[in-house]
């Protein structure tokens, strides 16, 4: 589950509607990059992964999407292992 600060939604007629990420070419490439970055950091320190993820989101207007996908990948149901 995403933390509150990463949720994207709109309120329409007193109803909260989540914004869903469309499977566009750019979004799929972003997901692929995040997966590859996570895989490249398996067995390394979590701080190394966090540094790589910060570099990916730097200067991007959609940094919230990057953070959200990374959060789901790292803290969701993935089975990747990182050292503390």
UniProtKB/TrEMBL annotation:
- Please give the superkingdom of this protein's source: Bacteria
Q: What is this protein called?
A: Uncharacterized protein
Source lineage = Bacteria, Thermotogati, Deinococcota, Deinococci, Deinococcales
């Amino acid at each position: 589950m995403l933390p509150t600060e990463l949720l994207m939604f709109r309120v329409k007629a007193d109803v909260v509607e989540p914004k869903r990420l469309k499977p566009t070419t750019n979004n799929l490439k972003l997901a692929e990059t995040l997966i590859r970055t996570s895989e490249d950091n398996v067995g390394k320190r979590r701080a190394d992964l966090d540094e790589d993820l910060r570099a990916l989101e730097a200067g991007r207007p959609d940094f919230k999407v990057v953070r959200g996908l990374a959060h789901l990948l790292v803290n969701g149901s993935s089975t990747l292992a990182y050292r503390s």
